[in-house]
Amino acid sequence: MSPKSKASKKPVSEKTALVDNRNDTSGYQVPTKGILSKLPASWVPYAELIRLEQPHGNYMIYFPHIVGLMYATAIRPTPVSVLVHRAGIFAIWTFFMRGAGCAWNDNVDQEFDRKTARCRVRPIARGAVSTTQGHIFTLLLVLAGFASIATLPIECTYVGIGTTILSTIYPFGKRFTNFAQVILGSTLASTIALSAYSIGLPALNSHYIIPTLCLSATIMLLVVFYDVVYARQDTADDLKSGVKGMAVRFRNHLEGLFAVITISIAGFLTTLGGMVGMGHWYYVFSVGGLTFGLVSMIALTHWQLLPSWAGKSGYAYAFAILSLLTGFIVEYCVKDNVQ
């Protein structure tokens, strides 16, 4: 080979080869293990679209429903059988609506995804699912979600419509604001009212609206906290592609942001407890335990106090969420025994 021909063959980086190539599947590996490997090949892109292989997203979206149920029943004690029934319905609702949200997000963000290392092999971005197919699939998932809550009080459907509208807006938020995570958090926070109405607590009437909003704000901030912590890995790609976000906006002030969020959450929960007459175990678990969990997560991911534990920071967040739930559960048990 001549020197000229050698010089003409310039190396092309993987990133350059993948960016903006709609049908390039370079970097994509056909699943060989896990649930995706057991599905028919034609189903796999749709299963990937709803993140079937990543169930932690379902847990993230499901927990506000359970928090909402326990908040409502701590105020208005409800039979365990009813709580279990509502929890089952919301598990189905969560599965379909989370899938719809992921599919819609991937469709709207497909051009951005092709420019982001972590996202460029997603089904729509790589061309395995077309834009039209993605929209139809999303609509079917939404219809299935609303069918699952059709037997609940009509207020649940109204709140569900609001939740769906917020979910629709969210992916566009990254184009015009650095606070798209607030929209995402508000989407999940709206499920507090949905859950409360499902067992008969008028969550948004004049008597309960302030504590309901305090808990909703808590959920919103918890989602923002989690999203910012893990969005940091995409900051470099987001800066290049122009994607906005709080991790980008506050990239040089993350410690201060986390501190404000943690203190605000503690304040909202304390206000809620005082307004509805929660007992001391609520403050121990829901306020104190949750705050400890969030501070631990900051220590592991931002301060890097224990480098070997950095990859286990999710456990600290899980501890915070379980503490929040535990406070309401204990209140329910105590009030049920008193009555």
From TrEMBL:
Alphabetical list of InterPro entries matching this protein: Prenyltransferase (IPR039653), UbiA_prenyltransferase (IPR000537), UbiA_sf (IPR044878)
Give the subcellular location.
Membrane
Q: Which top-level group of life is the source organism from?
A: Eukaryota
GO MF terms listed in the record are: 4-hydroxybenzoate polyprenyltransferase activity
Going by the UniProt record, its keywords in alphabetical order are: Membrane, Transferase, Transmembrane, Transmembrane helix
State the residue spans of region: Disordered. Answer: 1-25
**What is the predominant subcellular site recorded for this chain?**
membrane
Q: Which GO terms describe its cellular component?
A: mitochondrial inner membrane
Biological process terms in GO annotation: ubiquinone biosynthetic process
CDD domains, per the entry: PT_UbiA_COQ2
**Protein topology in the membrane:** Multi-pass membrane protein
Q: Which family does it belong to?
A: Belongs to the UbiA prenyltransferase family.
Protein name per its UniProtKB record = UbiA prenyltransferase family-domain-containing protein
